[in-house]
């Protein structure tokens, strides 16, 4: 299945672990990462670092130019090899010695310093307008998540979002992190605690206001 991951700001980081698990399940992943500027783009720091992502995902420092262009295709596996989008293949088998999982990433920055000049949800809309997107997972600022929910409703694609809320106690007692979710039995909405009943919710379950 084709899965789209959408991350904004700090919300990019936790999606790497989801991407790794999706890879194990043979999902084709499109990773959309956004930030205010290139310096704050977490995905670039990880790709150009000495290590990589835990587990089976490895990225070598051989494609900074591709990263700055704002789009990269990675093949993930024990070889630790990745390729830029100019390498001219669309499936893992085309790359010869490459393992069996293909990840595509596109980046967006508010100031245009890396990738698309604008919000990462612009990239999401382009992906949803094409074929193949079966599920979307998103993590980031509330405005980004609200726009993601609007786009998923428009294109009829299911999705889940991980909310970022300030939490006082973390155990559900203080109610400082509540969010509005779809009501039951005629109620317009029901409050749910992000720390206990979240932080992940289906997009059609949330009331954005």
TrEMBL record:
Domain Dihydroorotate dehydrogenase electron transfer subunit iron-sulphur cluster binding stretches: 164-206
Organism this protein belongs to: Desulfofundulus thermobenzoicus
Gene3D superfamilies recorded: Dihydroorotate dehydrogenase, electron transfer subunit, Nucleotide-binding domain of ferredoxin-NADP reductase (FNR) module
Protein name: Dihydroorotate dehydrogenase electron transfer subunit iron-sulphur cluster binding domain-containing protein
Annotated Pfam families: DHODB_Fe-S_bind
Cross-referenced InterPro entries: Dihydroorotate_DH_ele_sf, Dihydroorotate_DH_Fe-S-bd, FNR_nucleotide-bd, PyrK_electron_transfer
